User: Fold this.
Amino acid sequence: MLNEIEVDNAAVPIANNNGIGELSVPYEIKLKSDVRPVVEPARKIPISIVEGVKKELDMMESQKIIRKVTEPTEWCSSLVTVKKPEGLRLCLDPRNLNKAIVREWYQLPTFEELASKMAGAKVFSILDGNKGFYQIKLAEQITFNAGSFGRYCYQRVPFGLCSAPEVFHQMFKEIFSRLLGVEVYIDDIIVYGDTVEQHKQHSRLKNVLERAKSANVRFNKKKCRFGLSEDFELSKPDLDTLPNGVRNNKDDVLNADLTSNLQKNMPRDDSSLNAQKELVNQYCSELDRKVVSKSGRTIKKPKYLSDYITDF
Assistant:
C-alpha cells in the first residue's frame, strides 16, 4: 500500500447500513421456448442454521432483494445456504433454470488482456461492487422455495444464475470503460496510472468515483484497495465457499488429467507438438497460477474464476 494515496471516505459511494446500489437498466431473462418449467422441492434446512436463514431472509426482504410470493409460479428453484465468515449467504440453486436461459455470451476479458492493457502502470486501486449482482434489478421474478418459511422471488439478480457474471460485467463496462486508466472485470473496477499524482483524487480515481455516484453504483469499502504497487491480486473469496465441495481439490484433478493426456499422446512431430502446447495452455488457464505480462508484472488469477458462482 502506498502512503501517498489518501482517499476521502465521503468521496467513495459506499453501502451505508448494508444498502446496495441500483443500476438503471433491469436485466430481462430470456428463456428457451421448448423447455418445460421445473418446480424443485424445498431442501431441508439444518436446525443449527434455521434462525440464521430466517434472519437473512428478513434482511434481504427489507432491502427489496426478495419478496414473499403466494401466487402460483411455473418455475421454482431450491435454496442453497453458504457459510461465510460474516454469516450466511443465501443462493439460488438454478440448475434447471440455467439450462433454459438464453445466454447473452458477452466476452469476459482474459487476464492476459488485462495485463497487456495495464503494462507499464505503477499504481493501482481496486474497487469492489457491493453485493455484486444484487445491484441489478430483475425485469421478472425468479422464485425459490425456502421450506417452512414459504416461497420468495428475487427482485435483483441472484447468485447462481449462469448469465449473471457476463451481464454484470457488461453493465459495469458500459458505465466505466470509457474512462481513461480503467479496466472492468465483473464487479471489480481496476484504476491504474503511471504515477501517484496521476492516480490521486484529482484525476483518474476521482473520475471513477464520480461516475459511480451518478450511476448509483455502490462499493464495499472493506474490500476496496487503494494505492497498490505493481503486484496485486484480483481475489474472489466467494469461490471457495460454494456448497457440496464442488471445487475441492480441483487443481489436483486438473493436474492429474493433464498428466494422463500428455502420457497417452506423446508428440511425434511438429503438428502433434503444437497440439500438446495448446492442450497445456487450456489446462493452465483453469489452474490457480499467475499471469505474467510482458513487463514482468504479475496479476494473480482468482481460483476457478471460469466457474464464478454459476453451477452448483
Summary: DSSP finds eight helices and twelve strands in the chain. The two ends are 36 Å apart (CA to CA). Residues 250-264 form the longest helix (15 residues).
